[in-house]
TrEMBL record:
Belongs to the bacterial solute-binding protein 5 family. Transmembrane segments: none annotated. InterPro entries: SBP_5, SBP_5_dom. It holds the Pfam family SBP_bac_5. It comes from Qipengyuania spongiae. Residues 67-412 form the Solute-binding protein family domain. It is found in: Periplasm. This is ABC transporter substrate-binding protein. Its main location: periplasm.
Length: 494
């Protein structure tokens, strides 16, 4: 019992003495809603995801580079057919006195996945067959068909384990004046061997959720060592801010950055007309004002590198110049306007200078084919009162894992408010349940082809995620998922 009390109090003691040693606290500002610092449940924004990752690890977790590393599971194996993942967990006493067992882990995973039903992430577990607690310290996850991305999915913040009220770690959080202070739990409190001198190595992390303007200003004033959660809408603030040179860090992400088709009447009622809007865009020119090196444009929903059907996005309008594409689009818009009047589309964009720049580019390019844009303030849905008042809505979402399944599930009819197809959803379901990998891949390719032909989304390119980091900060790295775990920023070696 004495050991339990000491392990429980150690992080609190660290939190209490954090400011008494120079450099003992790293102050982080994350752009977002302060209410998310204490968010519970499974529908988390970026702020809630970062806090959840620190407070509740899963079987595996992501390190600062975005790689899957052991967490509660100390190791695992995958069967030759790819349908069974067998994890050996670290079975130990939690600070609250409860035992972290294979059965407790299984129950937590089952409960979380059940609660994810009705979300796109719940759909991502469509290949799951069963979760079993085996003898001793072993948990087995069985799949209907192989899913190489399973470990990446299990490492998501929402998959952090919950066993009663006991903290799972790797950090303990304490609210503080609108912020959260997080201290790394000692190795022995997490079922790892004691490491001499560990306490002297680590530092406390203090996380504040603020507006983009406050984050950039606070970084310039020296209040924050790191700024996280930047998007395209607020990128211009960072680029123009003091001390920006050498401190802006861009993630090379994959995901969805483009415009959802919300209006399904009038010109937008047919896939052919929706294609006209997509083909008229010069995507590189849209992003050129942001001066972002290495950014990747996209004309398809699923990136070429992970596409199931092997069709390169660059070949979508092969052999046609942007002028020729716009000539085709202009003819379609002119024909429609002759019968219906001027084509006016209502677009919803987040507030921010980056959105203003994007809007100007879209308005200019589509203006060349006869389309006039009207902006709906903010995200469009709240301000307009109903989806019917919005035709196009910006979607800028980073992928959870690098598989075509994630992209297809974003447009499933049970979760999207835009254009969708139950036939596509049915093909994805067939792919999930097909035991033969070749058959599963065939269904996925068919689903992808059908979704692309539907034009439910106008792709622009890779999502833009930026951070600001001081040169002396350790434990930060760019990664494809734009999720920056707080534990490495504590300098904890294990």
């Amino acid at each position: 019992m004495r050991r339990i009390i000491v392990l429980l109090l150690l992080p609190i003691l660290l939190l209490g003495c954090g400011d008494r040693r120079s450099g003992d606290v790293v102050d982080i500002a994350i752009i977002g809603d302060p209410a998310e610092l204490g968010a519970s449940g499974l529908r988390l924004g970026p702020v809630g995801q970062h806090v959840r990752t620190a407070r509740a690890q899963g079987l595996v977790r992501l390190d600062e580079t975005g790689q899957v590393v052991p967490a509660i599971a100390e190791r695992w194996i995958v069967t030759d057919d790819g349908t069974s993942y067998i994890f050996r967990i670290r079975e130990f006493d939690l600070p609250g006195g409860e035992r972290l067992t294979a059965r407790a882990v299984r129950n937590s995973l089952r409960d979380t996945i059940e609660r994810l039903r009705g979300t796109s992430m719940g759909l991502d577990f469509g290949k799951l067959r069963d979760i079993r607690a085996m003898a001793g310290r072993v948990v087995e996850i069985r799949l209907k068909s192989p899913m190489p991305e399973l470990l990446q999915l299990l490492a998501q913040p929402e998959m952090g384990l919950a066993v009663g009220e006991a903290p799972i770690g790797p950090m303990i959080a304490v609210p503080e004046d609108g912020a959260v202070r997080l201290a790394a739990m000692s190795p022995e409190a997490r079922g790892l061997p004691r490491q001499p001198g560990w306490e002297e190595m680590v530092r406390t992390v203090r996380l504040s959720a603020v507006s983009a303007q406050a984050a950039v200003r606070g970084f310039a004033d020296g209040r924050y060592d790191v700024v996280l959660g930047g998007t395209l809408s607020d990128f211009a603030l960072a680029e123009a801010g003091p001390l920006s040179r050498g401190t802006i860090r861009l993630n090379s992400t994959i995901g969805l950055f483009g415009l959802d088709i919300r209006g399904q009447n009038g010109f937008l009622a047919t896939p052919e007309n929706r294609e006209m809007l997509s083909m008229a865009l010069d995507r590189t020119a849209l992003i050129q004002p942001f001066n972002i090196a290495g950014w990747n444009a996209a004309t398809t929903i699923v990136p070429d590198a992970i596409s199931s059907n092997g069709q390169a996005g660059d070949d979508r309008w092969a052999g046609q110049t942007i002028e020729q594409r716009r000539e085709r689009a202009r003819a379609a818009v002119t024909a429609w306007a002759r019968e219906n009047g001027e084509l006016v589309l209502r677009i919803a964009l987040p507030d921010g200078p980056g959105s203003d720049i994007l809007l100007r580019g879209l308005a200019a390019q589509w203006g060349e084919i006869g389309v006039r844009l009207v902006r709906i303030t903010g995200d469009g849905v709240r301000s307009a009162g109903s989806d019917a008042a919005v035709d196009l809505v910006l979607r800028e979402r980073v992928a959870r894992f690098g598989g075509a399944l994630w992209f297809l599930n974003q447009f499933n009819c049970t979760v999207t408010r835009g254009v969708c197809s139950e036939d596509v959803d049915f093909l994805v379901d067939l792919a999930n349940n097909a035991p033969d990998p070749a058959e599963s891949e065939s269904y996925m390719a068919e689903a992808e082809t059908a979704l692309e032909a539907l034009y439910p989304f106008i792709p622009i390119g890779a999502p833009i995620r930026w951070s600001m980091v001081r040169a002396d900060v350790e434990g930060f790295a760019e990664n494809p998922w734009a999720l920056h775990p707080l534990f490495p920023l504590s300098r904890a070696p294990i």
